[in-house]
Amino acid sequence: MIIFDLINRSYNLKYRSIKMIESLVSPKTKENVLFFLAGRNEGYAREIAKYYNTSLSPVQNQLENLEIAGIIVSKAVGKTVVYRLNPRYSFYKELVNLLEKAISFLPQSERERLLMNRRRPRRSKKPLK
């Protein structure tokens, strides 16, 4: 029984490691999501889809895949789910360094647009809750 437990744990650890690496490669949407979260620190699905002028569904799918892999985390802010890179991810520092390096190679205008994290100001005379 103990040997079976050890084999099972070893397999799960290996499987999780492979899933982490697999989740870093492939679709362009995944790359866009990671760039956005690295550049702006956090974002929600519709905001990311609007920024890259793409449909919402593939962005939501990639956010879900990245969250399952442990690369990003989410929190609910009202009815909106906000995502950010997971600081507890095993390769967090390496991932951030890689993404920052990749962002530095973007054209100047695109880099400025990505890094500009301006939100709309509060409407005047709007009551505080």
Structure, explained:
This protein is mainly alpha-helical and 129 residues long. The chain has a single domain (2-115), classed as Winged helix-like DNA-binding domain superfamily/Winged helix DNA-binding domain (Arc Repressor Mutant, subunit A, Orthogonal Bundle). The chain is 58% helix and 11% strand. The protein has 6 helices and 3 strands, in the order H-H-E-H-H-E-E-H-H. The protein has helices spanning 2-22, 28-40, 45-51, 56-68, 92-104, 108-115; strands at 43-44, 72-77, 80-85. A 3-stranded antiparallel β-sheet has the order 1-3-2. A hairpin with a 2-residue loop joins strand 2 (72-77) and strand 3. Helix 2 (28-40) packs across helix 5 and helix 3 (45-51) packs across helix 4. The N and C termini lie far apart (57 Å). 15% of the residues are buried. Residues 4-8 have low confidence and may be disordered.
List keywords for this structure.
129 residues; mainly alpha; Arc Repressor Mutant, subunit A
Describe the structure concisely for a colleague.
By secondary structure, the chain is mostly helical. It has six helices and three strands. The protein has one domain (2-115): Winged helix-like DNA-binding domain superfamily/Winged helix DNA-binding domain (Arc Repressor Mutant, subunit A, Orthogonal Bundle).
Average predicted confidence as pLDDT: 81
DSSP strand count: 3
Write down the CATH topology.
Arc Repressor Mutant, subunit A
Can you identify the CATH class? Mainly Alpha
Number of folding domains? 1
| Secondary structure tally, helices | 6
Strand adjacency order, main sheet: 1-3-2
β-strand percent reads 5-15%
**Rg to the nearest angstrom?**
18 Å
Uncertain segments are 4-8
**CATH architecture name:** Orthogonal Bundle
Shape: globular
